[in-house]
Amino acid sequence: xxxxxxxxxxxxxxxxxxxxxxxxxxxxxxxxxxxxxxxxxxxxxxxxxxxxxxxxxxxxxxxxxxxxxxxxxxxxxxxxxxxxxxxxxxxxxxxxxxxxxxxxxxxxxxxxxxxxx
Length: 117
Ligand SMILES: [Zn+2]
What we know:
Helix content is 62%, strand content 0%. By secondary structure, the protein is an all-alpha fold. The chain has two domains: 31 residues, no CATH class; 85 residues, no CATH class. The relative contact order is 0.11. Zinc ion binds next to loops.
């Protein structure tokens, strides 16, 4: 890069110009901000929904500090973790309400009593 004051060529990530001593803006040395909670939360929402949910909420808060990075991932992580957590409960309720397994349980009971009896 070049110094904005004296146009001297300087090394990248240099804080001070060796020619004129001008200080460069922090944007040249600014480290990359990453929102790891957003990515982690999204992955964990599939594996362990509760942890994914917590990580995604932290990721959503961090997104404000990270220039909005990871906001979409965090929202997705929250939605998926809620769905993943609710899916087994909904499935059990549906099975009980609709009586899908009733016939199967009867058959199993007959089968077991046939073996033992
Ligand atoms: Zn300079």
